[in-house]
C-alpha cells in the first residue's frame, strides 16, 4: 500500500479503499468511545481525521500522539459519522515517526500571533495560515512561468553577483573577498578592489534589468525571476532586504505595450491562483474576515479578500500621467487638511500614502501612473519630448499601484538613443565607460524596448490578504531577522 498525499485521499480515493497517510498531528481528541486524530501533511489546508476505538491503541502510543508529532496511519477510508468531514480513516495501525514533547513544542492547536510566528519562522509552515500562504506563493510562481512561456518569453538567468547598480540608489550589499578589517589600499588611501576576487567592486544584484535588456536585444522577449537584494534599512511592511523579482523585458515594445502586458500579466496570474488555490484562498479569506471584525467599523475593508481579487481581475486599471495624479493629490482632502505625512507637489517621488490615496480613495481601482519627472527616475528610462504641458522634463515610466500595497510594479520604456543615454549618464554621474557593455546594445542594432519589475512578495501579499511582507516569504531577510 503506497503512501498518498491527503489532498489526493480527500479528493479522489473511493470510500472502502485501504490507505496509508502520513503527516503531522494537528489535534487529538478523546471521547468515551473513540480517539480522533486530525492529521495534516501540507498538501492541502484540509486535515484528515483518523479514528481509533477506545482501547485500540496502546497507552504508550497514545501518549506519543500529540500536536506536532509525525505519524503514519494505515486503515480504511470510510464515510465519516461526524460533522465537518465527508470521509475519515478507520485506523488499523499507527507508526509514530517522531514525537513532539507537548511541554516544549511551540505550536499549539490555537491561533498564534503573527509576531510570535515570525520568531519561529522554522516551524511556522506547519500552521494553517503559513502552509496556505506557501501553497499560494508556489501557485503564483508557477503561473508566472506559465504565463511567460505561453506568451513566447524566454526565461533568462541574470547574475546575482554583479558590478552594476541598476537603480543607482546605493542600496547594495557588497560582495568581497578582501579582509574587511584590513583591506589593501591604493596610493590614494582608497580600498584597492583590483586585488578583490573579481578585480573590481561587486555587489549582490538590486535588479536583473540591465542584463535582462541584453537578453531582450537578442531573444526578443525574456523574463527574469530571481532573488534581489537591497540593503534598505527600512522597517516598513513592504520592504525586505532579500526579495524575488520578476522582470520581463521586450524588444519592440513601447510604453503602451508595456502597460498592456503588465495589466494582462497580473490579472492572469491572480486568476490562476483563484482557480487553483480555492481552498487556501477561502481559508485566508475567512482568516481576514475574523481579523477585520476586531477593527473599528470605519477601518474595516469594504470588500472581502476574494471579492477584492475578483474585482481586480474584472476591472480595467485606471491609467493616467504623474502630472494628472499630482493635480488630483494637491486638490485632495488630505493635502488640503495637511493630513499627508509627506507634502505633495510636482517633482516629488510619491510615497505609499499618496499612491494608496489614488487607488483606495480616489479611483477605487488599480492605477497605472506614467510619465514621471525625469529627475526622480533612473537614467535608463526613455525621455519624453520636452513640452510646456509639464513643469519639467518627464520619462516614459510606469508604476502599477494596488490597493493596500501601493507600488507593485515599476517599469518603463528604455532609452534606445545612444547619445541621449550617454548624456543622461553624465548628468547623473555614471561614467559611460564603466557600462560599455550596456551601451553596446544602443551602439549596435538599437531598438525600442521596454520592461518592468514586479516584486513577487508584493503580489503574494496582495493575493493572500496578509499585511506584512515578512509573512509571505518562507525565510524573511530584513534588518535583524536573519537567524538562519
Ligand atoms: P518602493 O518605492 O516601494 O521602495 P522601488 O520603486 O524602490 O519600490 P523598484 O526599483 O521600482 O522599487 O523595483 C521594482 C519592484 O520591486 C517594486 O515595484 C516592488 O514591487 C519591488 N520592490 C522594490 N523594493 C523592494 C523591497 N525592498 N522588498 C520587496 N519588494 C521590493
Ligand atoms: Mg525603494
Ligand atoms: Mg518606488
Ligand atoms: Mg519603482
Automatic annotation (TrEMBL):
A Pfam family hit: tRNA_anti-codon
EC nos: 6.1.1.22
Top-level taxonomic group: Bacteria
Coiled coil: 274-309
Catalytic activity: tRNA(Asn) + L-asparagine + ATP = L-asparaginyl-tRNA(Asn) + AMP + diphosphate + H(+)
Keyword vocabulary terms for this entry: Aminoacyl-tRNA synthetase, ATP-binding, Coiled coil, Cytoplasm, Ligase, Nucleotide-binding, Protein biosynthesis
GO CC entries: cytoplasm
An individual GO BP term: asparaginyl-tRNA aminoacylation
NCBIfam families, per the entry: asnS (TIGR00457), PRK03932.1 (NF003037)
Family statement: Belongs to the class-II aminoacyl-tRNA synthetase family.
Protein name per the record: Asparagine--tRNA ligase
Species for this entry: Spirosoma agri
Organism placement in taxonomy: Bacteria, Pseudomonadati, Bacteroidota, Cytophagia, Cytophagales
Designated gene of the protein: asnS
Amino acid at each position: 500500500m503506497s503512501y498518498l498525499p491527503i489532498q489526493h485521499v480527500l479528493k479522489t480515493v473511493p470510500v472502502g479503499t485501504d490507505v496509508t497517510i502520513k503527516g503531522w498531528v494537528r489535534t487529538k481528541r478523546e471521547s468515551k468511545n473513540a480517539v480522533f486524530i486530525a492529521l495534516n501533511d501540507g498538501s492541502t489546508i484540509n486535515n484528515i481525521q483518523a479514528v481509533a476505538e477506545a482501547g485500540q491503541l496502546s497507552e504508550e502510543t497514545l501518549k506519543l500522539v500529540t500536536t506536532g508529532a509525525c505519524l503514519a496511519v494505515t486503515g480504511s477510508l470510510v464515510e465519516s459519522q461526524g460533522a465537518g468531514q465527508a470521509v475519515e480513516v478507520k485506523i488499523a495501525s499507527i507508526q509514530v515517526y517522531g514525537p513532539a514533547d507537548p511541554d516544549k513544542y511551540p505550536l499549539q492547536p490555537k491561533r498564534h500571533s503573527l509576531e510570535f510566528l515570525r520568531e519561529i519562522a522554522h516551524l511556522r509552515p506547519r500552521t494553517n495560515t503559513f502552509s496556505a500562504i506557501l501553497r499560494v506563493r508556489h501557485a503564483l510562481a508557477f503561473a508566472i512561468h506559465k504565463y511567460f512561456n505561453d506568451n513566447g518569453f524566454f526565461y533568462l538567468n541574470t547574475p546575482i553577483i554583479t558590478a552594476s547598480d541598476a537603480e543607482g540608489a546605493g542600496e547594495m550589499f557588497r560582495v568581497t573577498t578582501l579582509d574587511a578589517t584590513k583591506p589593501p589600499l591604493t596610493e590614494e588611501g582608497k580600498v584597492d578592489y583590483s586585488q578583490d576576487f573579481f578585480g573590481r567592486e561587486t555587489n549582490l544584484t538590486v535588479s536583473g534589468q540591465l542584463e535582462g535588456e541584453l537578453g531582450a536585444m537578442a531573444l526578443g522577449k525574456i523574463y527574469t525571476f530571481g532573488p534581489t537584494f537591497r540593503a534598505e534599512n527600512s522597517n516598513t511592511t513592504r520592504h525586505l532586504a532579500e526579495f524575488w523579482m520578476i522582470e520581463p523585458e521586450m524588444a519592440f515594445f513601447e510604453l503602451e505595450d508595456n502597460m498592456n502586458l503588465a495589466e494582462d500579466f497580473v490579472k492572469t496570474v491572480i486568476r490562476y491562483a483563484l482557480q487553483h488555490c480555492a481552498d487556501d484562498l477561502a481559508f485566508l479569506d475567512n482568516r481576514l474576515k475574523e481579523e477585520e471584525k476586531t477593527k473599528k467599523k470605519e477601518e474595516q475593508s469594504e470588500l472581502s479578500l476574494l471579492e477584492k481579487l475578483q474585482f481586480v481581475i474584472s476591472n480595467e486599471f485606471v491609467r493616467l500621467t504623474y502630472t494628472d495624479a499630482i493635480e488630483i493629490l494637491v486638490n485632495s482632502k488630505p493635502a488640503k487638511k495637511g493630513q499627508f505625512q509627506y507634502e505633495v507637489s510636482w517633482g516629488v517621488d510619491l510615497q505609499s500614502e499618496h499612491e494608496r490615496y489614488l487607488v483606495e480613495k480616489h479611483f477605487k481601482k488599480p492605477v497605472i501612473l506614467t510619465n514621471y519627472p525625469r529627475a526622480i527616475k533612473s537614467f535608463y528610462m526613455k525621455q519624453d519630448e520636452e513640452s510646456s504641458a509639464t513643469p519639467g522634463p518627464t520619462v516614459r515610466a510606469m508604476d502599477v499601484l494596488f490597493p493596500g500595497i501601493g507600488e507593485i510594479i515599476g517599469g518603463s520604456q528604455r532609452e534606445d538613443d545612444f547619445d541621449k543615454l550617454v548624456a543622461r549618464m553624465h548628468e547623473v554621474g555614471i561614467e559611460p565607460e564603466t557600462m560599455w557593455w550596456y551601451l553596446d546594445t544602443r551602439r549596435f542594432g538599437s531598438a525600442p524596448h521596454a520592461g518592468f519589475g514586479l516584486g513577487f512578495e508584493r503580489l503574494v501579499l496582495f493575493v493572500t490578504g496578509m499585511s506584512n511582507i515578512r509573512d509571505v516569504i518562507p525565510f524573511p531577510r530584513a534588518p535583524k531577522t536573519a537567524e538562519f
